[in-house]
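Subject: sequence -> structure tokens, single chain

Hey, anyone have a minute? Need the predicted structure for the following. Not urgent.
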Amino acid sequence: MIRTKSWQILGTIAAIVPALIFGTHYFLGLESSIAARIPKQVCIPSLSRTPTCYAFGKTLSTDEINGLTVSPDGRTLANGYRQTIQLWDLETRTLQRSLQGHQDWITALAISPNNRILASSSLDRTIKLWDLETGQLLRTLESGRVTCLRFSPDGQILAAGSRNSRWADGVVSEGGIQRWEVTTGQPLPILGSEQVASLAFSPDGRILASGHLDTRLWDLGTGRLLHALDSGK
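Reply:
Had a minute. Here:
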């Protein structure tokens, strides 16, 4: 019995020691390959042996930001500062222009898939559509207060919703998903009656997902609710 235990102990040691030796070297090798820091950059090695490097962030605006979006082509960043919209060139990191028109703070921003139109919503209960290249105001939509905006994949439809039903100043936001034709500004039937915290279109533009206390999937062809998913609060 004693001899058996001795062999078990020796066997365990024989298994552990190589694991410690090679495991330590493996861990140290892995740790050294996770990230290597060089001046003004953090580089992460990849399987192609060409590391991916990220430069340290640079501050564009020092103002308090209350809305943010980046154009699909990655060239323009739009941010809301109170009731002003600032447009930044991400390549040069310079301010292109500031857009004025809203009478109260910005609540949400979105840029169309073709990088041509910027949508902005505000506490002034409107959504404004801007020509992103010229900064010209294209049209104003009477929306009430909304907190999320989303363009359809083809850029033809703008959807909006509000996560708040009643604001601190007593203003009431109706529930449901509001929709407009972008080119004409004509409203489309509202989907549902619940508050909306987030929106997302399917890649083919046929289904719209809305999130709040649950996640709802809408058929945009018929306006019919397809599913209500318990995604948690």
